[in-house]
# Entry
Amino acid sequence: MKVVSYNLRKHRAIAELAALDEQYSPDVLCLQEVETAGLAEHVGRLQLAHSTTGNRLGLAVYFRPDRYEFEVVQSFALKKSLHDHLLRPAHERLVGVRLRDLEADREFVVASFHAAPLTALNSLRRHQIHAALAELQGIGPGLPILMVGDYNYPVFKDNLAEKVREAGYELSLSDSRTYTRYKFFRGHFDLATSVGFDIERVETLPRGSSDHLPILVDARYAAATESEVEAAIGA
# Structure
């Protein structure tokens, strides 16, 4: 399964999505900072599963309807940062979708995530990540989960990876940095967190008009059963 995640930088990279579908043929496309009002129902061969409605610049998930069957979707509000309270509240920072793989006859959960901005503390973003993963378990208890997006986590990723592993998940970085706009905050901002999947590769794709570079996650189902996934995350 191939999943592309892309922060569109206030919607300015929206015109690049059809080319991404044409060139990389993703099964799922997860977006951040997209203007959700009037969002197209289809991008290339992909169909819109859901987009947030609580804020203008939100999240969206597209999927391939010829390969996957849409089952459940839900968006979630997570703990707000001071930036959210004082400026433009981001009411929803997570969209999770449960899909059925028609070829493999398996269900899984995929999600688009956008953490609090750099003005917040890493501790808040860790709280948001932990809460997001717990919410996704509610969509599909015991199912494989893949959460991708803009984690806004420029430093101390080893600590983040350790916390994620303690919760039963794996954190995956791409093969090169995904954000280069600010001199002191360059690095891997766009990440993947998973359980029940083997992440074979995370590739940073060429730069477009956004300050984030899109990532392509290549994942396959792990051999773990649903009960083993539940045990891994302490369910």
The two ends are 25 Å apart (CA to CA). The helical segments are 17-24, 82-86, 122-139, 157-166, 226-232. DSSP finds five helices and 13 strands in the chain.
